[in-house]
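Encode chain A's predicted structure.
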Amino acid sequence: HYFKIDNATAVAGDQVEVVELFSYLCSHCNTFEPYVNTWAARAPEFVDFKRIPVVFGRGSWELYARAFVTAEIMNLNEKAHMAMMDRLWKERKIMRSLDEIADFYVEYGADKEKFLSTAQSFAVDGKIRKDQQLVRDYGITGTPSLVVAGKYRVSGNAALPSFDAMLDVVDYLVGMEKANLTSNSVAAE
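Encoded structure for chain A:
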């Protein structure tokens, strides 16, 4: 149901990190988004939920990863994330340039010129490189995937026939990691 990540580096802190690895251009990710959003809304306070856009060497996926990271750095509203999925999958409006994507984010409070300059910045380039290194380190070969505490990878497979089943496994792993955090903090006292 899940895979232990080889040479995993545990995420330090008193929270359990859960990372969704996705692409805006992945139809399965679009279908998964309402499930993971509902899960994240009900997740315990000790869960730190994050998203990492996956590129897999595809130029079109890199364009949208750049857009996501730019929006994240600019602290644009989380509503823009689902709206981007809706624009692509419900409205079927593919944006093929950073300029078109910047126009989209203007609807969510971005200044177009600032968005474009941020998208081409060292900070965004560095974050994308770091994220893609994590994708490789985590052994991600398909999307959507989830990583719990930097140690466990959960992806759809024959043993996990539904998105609900994937999230049930995530809940199990989160509980296991929370118990580890609790026992480690008690042992340190």
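The radius of gyration is 17 Å.
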